[in-house]
Amino acid sequence: MKAEAVRHILDSIAVMFPDAHCELNHSNPFELTIAVLLSAQCTDATVNKVTADLFQKYKTPEDYISVPPEELEQDIRRIGLFRSKAKHIQSLCKILIEQYNSKVPSDYNELVQLPGVGRKTANVVISNAFGVPAIAVDTHVERVSKRLGLAGWNDSVLEVEKKLMKQVPKEEWTVTHHRLIFFGRYHCKAQNPACADCPLLDVCREGKKRMKKSQLSKDRDK
């Protein structure tokens, strides 16, 4: 995509969502890591409901490994895949205690070695907790990027990430990540995107197709 088209997209979503931010509640890098780990295949709203109590009960890695796995499972039961996530959390906490003095490492390559921490989680943590520019590709970022032509329809998550990093100025990576999430979560939704009211309809492949289909349907009904 040409640079001016990318700039148009970035400026448009900046106007729409100037205050976009990480919506997972946390007060330190450790809590953010736990919250992002829990958010896999789960909404941020549900995670925040669970962590409201969880972060009161467990404040350190030592706290998480001091209870039986079954107790932690019950504490996060409302979260999807709660059993495997509880196992990952306790394994992660043991490593933090043994290798990192109970602190979350700020290095990306060290983060992705932790149980339950993939590229997305690591990118969210380094960008939000440590101020390192990064673009984390979740379901919203992937969907919006493909609809707007920033990535190809068949691109993998890693390919989407690489293309965004190439097209978006590095100093805008983190804020663009948040704005793309807000755009996908609140405007360009998976099932009912607000195409008719979208300032990016001119560059959106999905939007043009939907609007054309809608117009054809209206014409048939006349």
Rg is: 20 Å
Q: Which CATH architecture of the domain at 29-130 would you pick? A: Orthogonal Bundle
User: What is the strand tally?
Assistant: 0
Order of helices and strands: HHHHHHHHHHHH
Gap from first CA to last CA = 38 Å
Question: How does the overall form come out from the CA principal axes?
Answer: elongated
What structural class do you assign from the helix and strand content?
mainly alpha
CATH class of the domain at 29-130: Mainly Alpha
Spans of at least 5 consecutive residues with low confidence: none
> pLDDT average, as an integer?
93
Strand content: under 5%
Spell out the CATH superfamily of the domain at 29-130. Answer: Hypothetical protein, domain 2
Assign a percent range to the helix content. 55-70%
Largest sheet data = none
Question: Summed up, what is this model?
Answer:
With 222 residues, the protein is mainly alpha-helical. The protein has a domain at 29-130: Endonuclease III, domain 1, CATH 1.10.340.
Walkthrough of the structure:
- This protein has twelve helices and no strands.
- By secondary structure, the chain is mainly alpha-helical.
- The chain has a domain at 29-130: Orthogonal Bundle (Endonuclease III, domain 1), CATH 1.10.340.
- α1 (3-16) packs across α11, α2 packs antiparallel against α8 and α5 (69-75) packs across α6 (82-99).
- It is elongated, with a radius of gyration of 20 Å.
Any descriptors?
222 residues, 61% helix, 12 helices, mainly alpha, Endonuclease III, domain 1
List the helices and strands and how they pair.
Elements: H1 3-16, H2 29-38, H3 44-57, H4 61-65, H5 69-75, H6 82-99, H7 108-111, H8 119-130, H9 139-147, H10 157-167, H11 173-186, H12 205-221
Helix pairs in contact: 1-11, 2-8, 5-6, 9-11
GO molecular function, one term: metal ion binding
Binding site for [4Fe-4S] cluster: 188, 195, 198, 204
Catalytic activity: 2'-deoxyribonucleotide-(2'-deoxyribose 5'-phosphate)-2'-deoxyribonucleotide-DNA = a 3'-end 2'-deoxyribonucleotide-(2,3-dehydro-2,3-deoxyribose 5'-phosphate)-DNA + a 5'-end 5'-phospho-2'-deoxyribonucleoside-DNA + H(+)
